[in-house]
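Holo prediction — S-adenosyl-L-homocysteine.
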Amino acid sequence: MTVLTGIGMTSQRTRDRMVRRLAEKGIRDPRVLQAMAEVPRHLFVDEALAHRAYEDTALPISHGQTISQPWIVAKMTEAILHDGMPEKVLELGTGSGYQAAVLSRIVPQVFSIERIDALTQRARKRFRQLGYRNIRTKTDDGYKGWPSEAPFDVIFVTAAPENIPEALFDQLAEGGRMIVPVGKGPQDLLRLTKTVSGIQKENLGPVLFVPLLEGVVR
Ligand code: SAH
């Protein structure tokens, strides 16, 4: 028990340091900084890499996938909050579950789809252990979205399709936004807004994500 508390306290200090660095690098939204100070990122990486969990780098999470760099998580989360609080967010690419966990501390409902079943199961277990009850996950091909839960206020894509996944706009509420890295590595991080007169597009800059692939791995 004492040992566990010790680890918890140490990680809170390192996490606070990570958050201070994010603020220095231009992350301003207090809700994002607060959520990232709260979510124990070291529980979302392999134990052998836990000591590096609060460095500002992407890390491997098995199955050839990666947990995104904290700065990217912060930047993308900030990007969906700047014009009002979304009610329902759909993430494609659960991976470790870290991004969904951060989102869940800010928005009411998070849905997240992962194509590799082993990763879905592991993320789900972490959410349960941490008591994050407003996240629902499933193993599926994210290109299909989650039609029974649509419309979403935000669709948040954390793997890169080669082209904008246009079919998913049907599952976006009017005024809703899609954040998506598009292209073949390095990609452009796009913020697309669905309006009555069509899709508005903003380029938030270059990023590097693993590809969004089709099909499911069981
Ligand atoms: N958001 C994650 C990082 C994502 S890495 C985190 O915070 O850890 C990208 C993830 O997208 C990988 O786990 C990969 O398996 C998944 N992925 C790739 N193509 C997908 C698809 N079509 N549908 C759902 N998930 C997909």
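READOUT: The helical segments are 2-24, 30-38, 70-81, 98-104, 117-130.
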